[in-house]
Specification:
1 helix, rod-shaped
Length: about 30
């Protein structure tokens, strides 16, 4: 695996984690 592939994988993982965190935050604010 190249460095760019690892970098892109890390970025997509962080974005997914951030998206789910944001969703959980919105849900907890609603309830």
């Amino acid at each position: 695996m190249s460095v760019m592939e690892l970098h892109n994988l890390l970025l997509s993982l962080m974005k997914r984690a951030y998206d789910s965190f944001e969703l959980a935050l919105q849900l907890s604010l609603l309830h």
